[in-house]
Amino acid sequence: MEAVTIKDIARALNLSTSTVSRALRGSYEINPETKRLVMEYAERMNYRPNPIALSLKENRSRVIGVIVPQIANDFFSQAINGIEAIAYNRGYHVIIAQSHESFEREVVTVQQSVARKVDGLLISLSSETNDVSHLQELRQKNFPIVLFDRVSDELDTVKIVSDNYGGAFAATEHLIRSGRRRIAHVTIPPYMSITQERLAGYRAALEQNGLPYDESLIRYVGFGQHEIDPIVDDLLEQSPPPDAFFAASDRLALGCLATLQARRIVIPEQVSIVGFTNIGVAHLLSPPMSTVVQPAKEIGQTAAERLIELIERKQKAAPIGTVRIPTQLIARQSSGV
């Protein structure tokens, strides 16, 4: 079966090829009803743009670069699924690279991506990145960049994030309402955007519920289980010890869970746990783990849409700024539900 072309769609709908082409690109020049007819017919006939022909015609590669800290991370794998779905339907290929939480590798990967003539970049910053001058230089040349999840206020570009503050507030308040009063917060390096926002939500929930914010209950940790064990042990030695842990990621929550169970701490009777991400196995753990749903696929889809808007420089593209995608708390047995 031969692939459906723009000419086929135009003939079937009695439209000009230029009208169909502009409608498929989402042009503001085409009225919404015509766009709807074209998009529905194209979807029904399984139309897919020819990226090679488009790149020759438009003098663009039709390739998007995606740089993430780690593909194996459940959040990033879901976000990439969202990115690829949007890119594919818009006629773009995706090249995926990992920084492996290294600033140096992030810089090199950005340089390599630009050298390969990608049309734009989607980036989630590494845990070591607190200098974004390598990205600022590209933005000064109007190179399209969209940051997602881990972002920087120092870069003037579109940023797509989850509602980290709201999610952390909901998780902490849930623990308070279940009777917990000494809630430890285990999180990642302090200069990262998601760290600051989740810490702010945690602190606000304590203060709004009449509980003191205690710096001694805050712990920053890297990305290895060997770093989590001594931190949990140190917190348990306090008098009184924490009666709950709110972890800034499910990876950290899993580490805390493993350490507590190895110390024969009964969960949730002695200590409650809430994570942040909602990894696919959270409901299968023993006990099933409460967590904040981070809408990874939606973040990826929105980031891809906004990057393509920047690449194609649409006159009605949404302004540069931060888009916050809502989160949702799922309470399970690890927090006493």
UniProtKB/TrEMBL annotation:
<feature type="domain" description="HTH lacI-type">
    <location>
        <begin position="4"/>
        <end position="58"/>
    </location>
</feature>
<dbReference type="GO" id="GO:0003700">
    <property type="term" value="F:DNA-binding transcription factor activity"/>
</dbReference>
<dbReference type="GO" id="GO:0000976">
    <property type="term" value="F:transcription cis-regulatory region binding"/>
</dbReference>
<dbReference type="Pfam" id="PF00356">
    <property type="entry name" value="LacI"/>
</dbReference>
<dbReference type="Pfam" id="PF13377">
    <property type="entry name" value="Peripla_BP_3"/>
</dbReference>
<dbReference type="InterPro" id="IPR028082">
    <property type="entry name" value="Peripla_BP_I"/>
</dbReference>
<dbReference type="InterPro" id="IPR046335">
    <property type="entry name" value="LacI/GalR-like_sensor"/>
</dbReference>
<dbReference type="InterPro" id="IPR010982">
    <property type="entry name" value="Lambda_DNA-bd_dom_sf"/>
</dbReference>
<dbReference type="InterPro" id="IPR000843">
    <property type="entry name" value="HTH_LacI"/>
</dbReference>
<keyword id="KW-0804">Transcription</keyword>
<keyword id="KW-0805">Transcription regulation</keyword>
<keyword id="KW-0238">DNA-binding</keyword>
<protein>
    <submittedName>
        <fullName>Substrate-binding domain-containing protein</fullName>
    </submittedName>
</protein>
